[in-house]
Design goal:
The chain is α/β, with parallel strands linked by helices. The protein contains seven helices and four strands, in the order E-H-E-H-E-H-H-E-H-H-H. The longest helix is centred in the middle third of the chain and has 19 residues.
């Protein structure tokens, strides 16, 4: 049994990794300065808190501080995902090492919409920087089942990755669809 810190971006993406890893001493880490707006951050956090309470699992949280993310991507939004993964995984590794965990991983490995190889690369780099192993497992095969379960349980399922830029892209995509339908 390993003591594992699981970076958690949202409750739906937490379902499968939690189920697969629950034989370990598991704690959740909600660190997501990328999420915009504040209400979205709080809504995702509330669902993760509810999950942690029901699962009787420790949860470590950080206060909302979007400047940590925005300062990293302000002048280069084309690399925003890489910088976002790096920021969150480095902090997860740092906290895991500081608090005596054996390893760390992330629910970012669940979504087929995330840049999977880049997450592995950033997790591995954080592992080396803080001298703590990055636990890798491909959770993507469980994504659809987790989304279905989240829907059945009434768990909030967000419509975009989380950052201001992904929200703007989502809104532009919806607007383009509506315009296309009217034509």
């Amino acid at each position: 049994m390993m003591k594992l810190l699981l970076h958690t971006c949202c409750a739906p993406c937490l379902l499968s990794p939690f189920e697969r890893l629950q034989d370990n001493k598991l704690a959740l880490f909600y660190y997501n300065p990328n999420i915009h707006p504040f209400e979205e951050f709080n809504q995702r956090l509330a669902w993760v808190e509810q999950f942690a309470e029901e699962a009787k699992t420790d949860l470590i949280t950080y206060h909302y501080n979007p400047d940590q993310y925005l300062n990293k991507v302000a002048f280069d939004t084309t690399e925003r995902c890489e910088k976002c993964y790096e920021l969150r995984l480095k902090e997860t590794a740092r906290v895991a090492q500081m608090k005596g965990f054996d390893t760390f991983t992330s629910t970012l490995l669940v979504s087929p919409y995330q840049k999977h190889e880049l997450i592995i690369e950033m997790g591995t780099a954080a592992s080396k920087k803080f001298d703590i192993p990055f636990y890798y497992e491909d959770f993507r095969p469980y994504y659809k089942d987790a989304q279905k379960t989240a829907k059945e349980l009434g768990i909030y399922r967000q419509k975009y990755c989380g950052c201001k830029f992904s929200l703007e892209e989502r809104e532009a995509e919806l607007k383009a669809r509506k315009t296309k339908v009217k034509e």
